[in-house]
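A sample follows:
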Amino acid sequence: MKVHRYDSVPEIKNIGDGIFKTEIPQPFYAPNNIYILPDGEPTIIDSGYIENLGLFTKGFEKDRTFFE
């Protein structure tokens, strides 16, 4: 079993018009930009393969304001 430790948790930022953005670092690639559109049917748009789902989940746990 692999245990992950995170030095920092990515912040989920409101970039306007009900769109949120976070940036997940990737081990061998440029950081992955992820956009979240929570209105209506929630939608996630990412700029590539999400290597680190654990870190992505930690960002959600840190800030749940877009669910309100």
In short: The longest strand covers residues 19-24. The chain has one domain: 13-67. The chain has a mean pLDDT of 76.
